[in-house]
Design goal:
The structure holds two protein chains of two kinds. Chain A contains six helices and no strands. Chain A is an all-alpha fold. Chain A has two domains: about 60 residues; about 80 residues, no CATH class. In chain B, α2 runs parallel beside α4 and α5 packs antiparallel against α12. The chains are: A mainly alpha, B mainly alpha.
């Protein structure tokens, strides 16, 4: 994949979001220039940003340079996908599984990052989970979700 | 002057309390470590560790975050000299001669001169902060909503040069940040805007998950894609840290010049720390009696740039604390930290929170001494951190970020926001869009909107009522000049492109 392609994807996505933003702003009370309503500035700035983004996108099509991104290797992309998927799965299960979800997240990320065998990832994840929960509960007084371990903790 | 000294002494009295001393120590140590570690810069480190300051009072939290910021400038030079890998961008220039000195067996001397230069320049920067920030804030006290709005327009245009990249790209990001800041309940009418029925969005886009995603998670995803290589560092013994008489003599002027170059550079929006080190290197090469030694291990090539980048980073605290304006990406995060702690940064900060301002100033003096004392004897320990492998570091960093985002409101929603911003930040990285201007827009957006709406109401239907106010008119004139200058440069670029044969 080229840098230019990534730029087009990014600007295309941003342009779509800005379009939705500006259309949504039209649904708010706009008011007048001298008595602006809650939708006034979002509409004006949304339209302006939309125009700047459209110009940038048009510019990205006219630029001829197509520099390939060497970082996008098959292994790298696999790791990236596992990272994102694991974090999303963690977010889905954090409140239910509590520290178990946190532990599993760390094990999978450590293993994906290149640890051979399971010993070190499990050890690293266990130590870090305990330290994190202890620090947040006892030192910072911030309760992290315990999920199925709720009764066991108290 | 007497008042300044009295306030400073009060600041020292507060900074010397056990809590604040520990926070300062932890801040500078973490700063040094992040300066050394590849993959996490000062901006990412501040983003990561913001949640740790939640349990602290705002002054102590700010001391810790500021410590990370200026500590990272020290740490960056260690890897530049020992491994030829800059820990952060501002230390890139130090690689040129620092690593060559290490190859000649003078790594200890290079580290010493970098530490001494950094300490001197950092201290000079703090003196500047102490002298210039209060009068600047006092001047800004006469500002009404029109002046704030004009300042906002001017700053949003100026800060579009925050990263030194393309103006149009940065402007797009600043505007996007301002638009994001308008999500949530409208401050004046109480109307929900752009919440799409999501209750959690009523309070707007929270800064912390956005910052953590854009700077932290995006960086982790980039490392997951291409893990950094672990490097072997040159070994340095404590007794090798001494400077020869000749080296000492050759370093004095470069340190002074570097400090004087770096300080004003820090007052200009943009990548000041990096640019000032580059400028200082060029200046030293011109002033040197041995220009042929540059690039081959000239001590001036380490002393000047290291002093310059530290002076610039201390000076960047002046617009932040006096006006609430971040002129560099890490200071944008410090500003975010202040807001998260419920402190309203801006011209009223020094007046309303004088105790906190002087506490931070005093803690910066102490932090600089701590850095000097710590960095020299522990250089070997810090250098060994370059061997920490990404497979150990990255899972831990993700863990810290996740609990950090969650702990803001004890809500999963913030984790989701962090993930979204993380993926967006990752794409932005490969599309060559810097997230720092977006954060600036997100931070300054609410004040900008409030200023505009109050100004329009005050104008009573006539723009002349606003434009004839002297400060407002000057600020608008500067804004117009910036736009004209950018337009002129754009036209020049188009003409140049047309002249070139296809």
């Amino acid at each position: 994949m080229t840098k230019s392609a990534v730029e087009k994807i990014f600007l295309g996505g941003l342009l779509a979001c800005l379009g939705i933003y500006t259309v949504t702003a039209m649904g708010l009370r706009i008011g007048t220039m001298w008595e602006p309503g809650p939708g006034y500035l979002p509409l004006v700035l949304g339209g302006l940003t939309f125009a700047v983004c459209a110009l940038q996108l048009a510019g990205s099509f006219s630029r001829g340079v197509k520099e390939k991104i060497s970082d996008f290797t098959r292994d790298g992309l696999k790791r990236l996908f596992v990272y994102i998927a694991t974090i999303i799965l963690f977010a889905l299960g954090f409140t239910t599984l509590g520290p178990a979800a946190f532990f599993l997240l760390l094990v999978i990320l450590a293993k994906t990052s290149g640890f051979q065998g399971w010993g070190y990832p499990v050890l690293l994840a266990a130590i870090f989970t305990v330290i994190t929960y202890m620090t947040f509960f006892n030192l910072l007084l911030i309760p992290l979700p315990l999920g199925i371990f709720e009764e066991m903790w108290w | 002057m007497e008042g300044t000294l009295g306030s400073l002494l009060q600041g020292f009295a507060a900074a010397l309390s056990a809590n604040n001393l520990i926070a300062c120590f932890i801040g500078v140590v973490i700063g040094t470590i992040t300066g050394v570690l590849p993959g996490i810069g000062p901006t990412g480190a501040i983003a990561l560790l913001l949640p740790l300051t939640f349990g602290m009072d705002s002054g102590t939290g700010l001391i810790l975050l500021a410590g990370i910021y200026y500590g990272s400038m020290y740490g960056g030079s260690t890897t530049s000299i020992l491994v030829n890998v800059p820990g952060e961008a501002a230390s890139m220039v130090t690689c040129l001669d620092g690593y060559q000195m290490a190859k000649k067996g003078r790594a200890g001397a290079a580290l010493s001169v970098a530490a001494i230069g950094s300490w001197f320049a950092g201290t000079l920067g703090i003196v500047g902060l102490m002298l210039f920030a209060p009068p600047l804030a006092e001047m800004a006290l006469s500002f009404g909503p029109p002046e704030y709005f004009a300042l906002g327009v001017c700053m949003l245009l100026l800060l579009s040069n925050l990263t030194g990249a393309s103006f149009s790209r940065a402007l797009l990001m600043v505007l996007t940040g301002v638009l994001l800041s308008m999500m949530g309940t409208d401050i004046i009418t109480g109307t929900d805007r752009f919440t799409f029925g999501i209750t959690d969005l009523s309070s707007g886009v929270e800064l912390l998950p956005a910052i953590m995603g854009l700077f932290g998670l995006a960086e982790v995803l980039a490392v997951a894609l291409t893990p950094y290589a672990v490097s072997d560092a040159a070994k340095v013994k404590f007794r090798e840290l001494y400077l020869k008489k000749e080296e000492m003599k050759r370093s004095v002027w470069p340190i002074l010049r570097g400090s004087l170059i770096g300080f004003p550079m820090g007052l200009i929006p943009g990548p000041a720390a990096f640019l000032s080190s580059l400028l200082s290197y060029k200046a030293e090469k011109q002033f040197s009696k041995h220009p042929e030694e540059f690039g081959k291990g000239a001590i001036e090539g380490v002393a000047g740039p290291e002093s310059a980048n530290n002076a610039a980073s201390s000076a960047a605290m002046i617009p932040l604390l006096a006006l609430g304006l971040p002129f560099a990406p890490p200071t944008a995060l410090l500003l975010g930290g202040l807001i998260i702690h419920g402190v309203n940064p801006g011209p009223l900060f020094i007046t309303q929170h004088a105790d906190m301002f002087w506490l931070v100033v005093a803690s910066m003096y102490l932090g600089n001494v701590m850095l000097l004392v710590l960095n020299l004897p522990l250089v070997g320990v810090f250098a060994s951190l370059t061997k920490v492998q990404p497979k150990v570091l990255m899972p831990v960093v993700v863990g810290i970020m996740i609990v950090g985002a969650y702990s803001l409101n004890n809500s999963l929603f913030d984790i989701w926001m962090m993930i979204i911003f993380g993926v967006v930040g990752f794409v932005m990285k490969y599309a060559d869009y810097d997230p720092a201007p977006l954060v600036v827009g997100l931070v300054l957006g609410p004040a900008f909107e409030e200023g505009l709406r109050k100004t329009l109401l005050m104008s009573q239907g006539s723009l002349m009522n606003i434009a004839t106010r002297p400060i407002t008119a000057t600020l608008f004139a500067i804004s117009a000049l910036i736009i004209a200058w950018v337009g002129y440069r754009w036209l020049q670029g188009v003409r140049r492109a047309r002249r070139q044969p296809a």
